[in-house]
């Protein structure tokens, strides 16, 4: 059967719900007898807690309880994806401004908020380390007085899955949370023989992912079982953390996710769920916790980074060696930063032939808000250094930014990481698509510059996915997957795949929301994996359902299963009789009941044996025009290529690329969290500057490269992050060419660009 549903820009099934306000988000969820929680937070960066006085708060109207770390002594009161170093409530000391110290539970949100002001916390101040340089100084205060990575405590998460990324080095009594080194060849000899050597240091800013919906969680602990509704991207991993905290079997913890209002990595892993859960455990009532934007910013932000890079080139512009040193500011708790840093190590040197390589990366504790995942997962930080270094070398060699890339990009099938899957894309062809589009509309005016950016990310995380389809007696279909819907369109995509595979109309396909007690296991919703790995699991589940239906039909037709033919939404017997799926189910069960379930599993074998499961390519070009009087950078052109193998929903791919590019432009030109002493100066919706509609480029060209070279259904590969990864470097190169000086940090605000121009002209 030919493809009839996939490959089309179908309307998303959730569209009407969302635009009419009917869609349910976590903030809409209520439970009988539900109380409300607000959090008492630290007002200093680093201090010992000497006393917490809750008496006045407990006496306030409507207050049910005030929970402190003393109330959690019988629990495993730490959690964390990579290192379980994160206290649910500050215990002994606080490590950053905004850290949760106590939880006030009350009958209303207003009563809880009022009582928060009545809790008195006494502190003894400790020296702070507000950036990586301070944290690595010889006299730096220790953020943590022990090494969590080395413990054998069963409550700690092993880092063993990092061994596939790079060498794991554990450091005792240090502010280095994790350290990674990779490399090959003789780097020093290659540098000594190079015709040109270029080195520079760049600074990637501290950002906030700024999902439209802040963190929410509703928890109910009852009869030694825990039910949580939350904004989690990875409900199964949250379930695992909560089971560990309370000492419960996994089967006694249920995590569900309704629609999520954006994530971009910030809602990866466990965030507010332990706070709501311990509040319910202590009070015996369901508890809802909804954070403000400011609280959300202090809950997690993006790793800022300081990256030094040195590259050597032959006279013809080919790379002979590269070396990187990456320092990532992980904040007070590791969260997912060690893995973000490890991925940055893998991705910083780009999709180029690098015969000699040395990369050293460190994830560093500081007394700032914890960092976690962000769209691109370590690639934007390292790629900024690698790409700007390449463009600096092009200037020194007297060639264009496009030419230096042409001379070094890997070809399809070549390895980027030694011993890993070869590149599954035609990156040189993608580059030419961008060059052609940019040059076609290039302006010939002063202060105008063009920049390119290339990246390749080892995407998909670990290939573990499961899916189920349930064919009902009326022929309608339920799709069950643990993949969460947070605006990216996963429910629409999965409905398209199921409709295509079973030959039914999308209108009869329903995708069930994530629920760890109902939907099958899904490792993560991230790493651009849903299309490739969840889609593949669903394709297999549909094939399994069809096989079962053929077997059942063979009994009804009194023939062999191999004699039963497939029809859209049904089967055909050897005698020409046709039955739709609903009729097969009804007749086989002999009544108006029953269903057929198909199961699809993906693990590390076959097409997904070699890591990574697929490569996500980022290919962008930008043209900027600068006002020399103000330093304002206007993006004139934005050109992107989504190398997705096959676009199951082309409009959705374009939306993902435009969203990623716009988010990348935000970090390149506007966004930066700024600390003023112990606290953030702009942790609010007014002072944190995200892109606006007027910031969009004059020309936007979103192209899709379809070569069916992915391991996913119909040759598809993931999308959604690749375009963000190289855009910072592309903007920096475009600005440098426009003003004649190279910036060393993002964002390129008007003030910074104005200074670049005036430094050049003085």
UniProtKB/TrEMBL annotation:
Superkingdom per UniProt: Bacteria
Pfam families for this protein: Ald_Xan_dh_C, MoCoBD_1, MoCoBD_2
Domain Aldehyde oxidase/xanthine dehydrogenase a/b hammerhead: 20-127
Protein keywords: Molybdenum, Oxidoreductase
One GO molecular-function entry: iron ion binding
InterPro entries listed in its UniProt record: Ald_Oxase/Xan_DH_a/b (IPR000674), Ald_Oxase/Xan_DH_a/b_sf (IPR036856), Ald_Oxase/xanthine_DH-like (IPR016208), AldOxase/xan_DH_MoCoBD1 (IPR008274), AldOxase/xan_DH_MoCoBD2 (IPR046867), AldOxase/xan_DH_Mopterin-bd_sf (IPR037165)
Protein's name in the database: CO or xanthine dehydrogenase, Mo-binding subunit
Organism: Jiangella alkaliphila
């Amino acid at each position: 059967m030919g493809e009839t549903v996939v490959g089309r820009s179908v309307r998303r099934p959730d569209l009407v719900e969302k635009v009419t306000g009917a869609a349910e988000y976590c903030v809409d969820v209520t439970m009988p007898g539900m109380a409300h929680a607000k959090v008492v937070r630290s007002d200093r960066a680093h201090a010992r807690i000497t006393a917490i006085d809750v008496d006045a708060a407990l006496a306030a109207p409507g207050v049910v309880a005030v929970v402190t770390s003393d109330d959690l002594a019988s629990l495993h009161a730490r959690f964390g994806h990579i290192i379980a170093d994160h206290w649910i409530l500050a215990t002994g000391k606080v490590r950053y401004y905004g850290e949760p110290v106590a939880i006030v539970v009350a009958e209303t949100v207003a009563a809880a908020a009022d009582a928060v002001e009545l809790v008195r916390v006494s502190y003894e101040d400790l020296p702070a380390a507000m950036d990586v340089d301070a944290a690595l100084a010889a006299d730096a205060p220790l953020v943590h007085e022990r090494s969590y990575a080395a413990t054998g405590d069963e409550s700690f998460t092993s880092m063993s899955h990092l061994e596939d990324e790079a060498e794991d080095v554990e450091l005792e009594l240090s502010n280095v949370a994790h350290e990674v080194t990779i490399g090959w060849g003789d780097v020093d000899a290659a540098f000594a023989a190079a015709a040109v050597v270029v080195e520079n240091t760049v600074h990637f800013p501290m950002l906030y992912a700024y999902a439209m919906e802040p963190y929410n969680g509703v928890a109910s602990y009852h009869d030694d079982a825990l039910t949580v509704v939350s904004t989690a991207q990875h409900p199964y991993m949250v379930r695992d953390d909560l089971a560990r905290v309370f000492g419960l079997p996994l089967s006694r913890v249920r995590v569900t996710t309704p629609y999520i209002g954006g994530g971009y990595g910030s809602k990866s892993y466990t965030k507010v769920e332990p706070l709501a859960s311990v509040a319910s455990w202590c009070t015996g009532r369901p508890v809802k916790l909804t954070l403000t934007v400011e609280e959300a910013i202090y809950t997690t932000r993006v790793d800022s980074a300081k990256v030094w890079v040195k590259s050597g080139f032959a006279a013809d512009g080919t790379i002979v060696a590269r070396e990187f040193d990456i320092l990532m500011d992980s904040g007070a708790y590791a969260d997912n930063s060690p893995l973000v840093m490890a991925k940055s190590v893998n991705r910083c040197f780009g999709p180029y032939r690098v015969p000699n390589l040395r990369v050293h990366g460190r994830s560093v504790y500081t007394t700032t808000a914890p960092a976690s995942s962000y769209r691109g997962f370590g690639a934007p930080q390292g790629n900024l250094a690698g790409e700007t270094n390449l463009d600096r070398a092009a200037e020194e060699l007297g060639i264009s930014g496009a030419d230096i890339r042409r001379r070094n990009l890997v070809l399809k099938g070549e390895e980027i990481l030694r011993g890993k899957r070869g590149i599954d894309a035609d990156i040189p062809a993608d580059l030419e698509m961008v060059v052609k589009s940019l040059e076609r509309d290039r302006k010939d005016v002063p202060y105008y510059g063009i920049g390119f950016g290339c990246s390749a990310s080892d995407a998909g995380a670990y290939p573990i996915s499961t899916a189920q389809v349930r064919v009902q007696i009326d022929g309608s279909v339920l799709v069950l997957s643990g993949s969460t819907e947070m605006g990216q369109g996963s429910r629409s995509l999965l409905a398209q795949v199921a409709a295509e595979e079973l030959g039914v109309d999308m209108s009869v396909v329903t995708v069930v929301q994530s629920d760890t007690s109902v939907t099958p296991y899904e490792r993560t919703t991230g790493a651009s994996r849903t299309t490739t790995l969840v889609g593949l699991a669903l394709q297999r589940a549909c094939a399994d359902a069809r096989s079962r239906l053929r077997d059942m039909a063979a009994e009804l037709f009194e023939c062999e299963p191999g004699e039963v033919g497939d029809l859209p939404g049904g089967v055909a017997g050897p005698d020409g009789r046709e039955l739709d799926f609903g009729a097969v189910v009804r007749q086989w069960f002999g009544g108006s009941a029953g269903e057929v379930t198909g199961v699809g599993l993906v693990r590390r074998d076959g097409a997904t044996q070699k890591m990574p499961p697929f490569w996500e390519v980022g290919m962008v070009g930008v043209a900027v025009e600068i006002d020399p009087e103000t330093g304002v950078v206007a993006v004139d052109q934005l050109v992107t290529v989504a190398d997705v193998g096959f676009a199951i929903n082309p409009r959705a791919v374009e939306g993902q690329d435009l969203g990623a590019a716009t988010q990348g432009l935000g970090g390149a030109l506007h966004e930066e969290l700024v600390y003023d002493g112990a606290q953030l100066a702009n942790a609010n919706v007014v002072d944190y500057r995200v892109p606006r509609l007027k910031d969009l480029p004059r020309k936007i060209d979103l192209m899709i490269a379809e070569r069916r070279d992915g391991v996913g259904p119909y040759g598809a590969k993931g999308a959604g992050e690749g375009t963000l990864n190289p855009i910072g470097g592309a903007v920096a190169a475009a600005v440098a060419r426009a003003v004649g000086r190279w910036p060393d940090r993002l964002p390129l605000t008007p003030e910074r660009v104005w200074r670049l121009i005036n430094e050049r002209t003085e």
